[in-house]
Amino acid sequence: MVPALEKIIAESDRIAFFGGAGVSTESGIPDFRSVDGLYHQKYDYPPETILSHTFWEENPEEFYRFYRDKLIVKGAKPNAAHLRLAKLEREGRLKAIVTQNIDGLHQAAGSKTVYELHGSTLRNYCVKCGAFYDVDFIANSTGVPRCPKCGGIVKPDVVLYEEGLDEEVLSGAVSAIRKADTLIIGGTSLVVYPAAGLIRYFRGRHLVVINMQPTGADAQADLCIAKPIGQVLSEDVLLED
Ligand SMILES: [Zn+2]
């Protein structure tokens, strides 16, 4: 708990939260963009190449091998940050979460209004007939997952590189940020576009950044907190300022 942040939260009733990978690292979900020696040992391409639409089309076996190995995380649970944000929504202070994460942990924590800019690993669809499949279907498949009904490829509802963001999700996110009185940016260095460009729609009173590394929004922020976000949003521990 950070007193300066708690004061801002107490004064706000239309908070929007904009989050990235750092929100989920405390749940044991690694940021696939962070430098990770494992990629170089096991894969011939960088993650940005493998997770592109072209690669999915041309090298589906390798795509799904990487996807099952790196993007599906079994047994992850919401952490103190997810839980506090869900509580702020229940209390009527927070109106929406905009996330770049694809792990569904905000909903698992109880959040209702969540704009998932990059989709979710929990949803998967047959590209031919549109049938829905859950994450276990992909996790338990081998090779290229095929629809049992029609034989089409089952594709994760995750926005790959080269693919555009979903229009409805995007406009919902823009509207929530535009109407917010406080915008809390957390666990993201704001380097992934177009998602990171959304914060320019914010017109409210308080901009807060919670991130271990500096971000492009620090200069405009009222408050920058360089501490783990679960710790910052937790109500249990009083941190010294
Ligand atoms: Zn099908």
UniProtKB/TrEMBL annotation:
Catalytic residue positions: H118 (proton acceptor)
Catalytic activity, per the record?
A: N(6)-acetyl-L-lysyl-[protein] + NAD(+) + H2O = 2''-O-acetyl-ADP-D-ribose + nicotinamide + L-lysyl-[protein]
Localization: Cytoplasm
Recite the UniProt cofactor note for this protein: Binds 1 zinc ion per subunit.
Which cofactors must be present for this protein to function? Zn(2+)
Source superkingdom: Bacteria
Query: Per the UniProt record, which EC number(s) apply here?
Result: 2.3.1.286
Q: Which residues bind Zn(2+)?
A: C126, C129, C147, C150
Q: List residues binding NAD(+).
A: A21, T25, F32, R33, Q100, I102, D103, H118, T188, S189, N211, I229
Principal location: cytoplasm
The family classification in the record reads: Belongs to the sirtuin family. Class U subfamily.
Q: What is this protein called?
A: NAD-dependent protein deacetylase
**Gene that produces this protein:** cobB
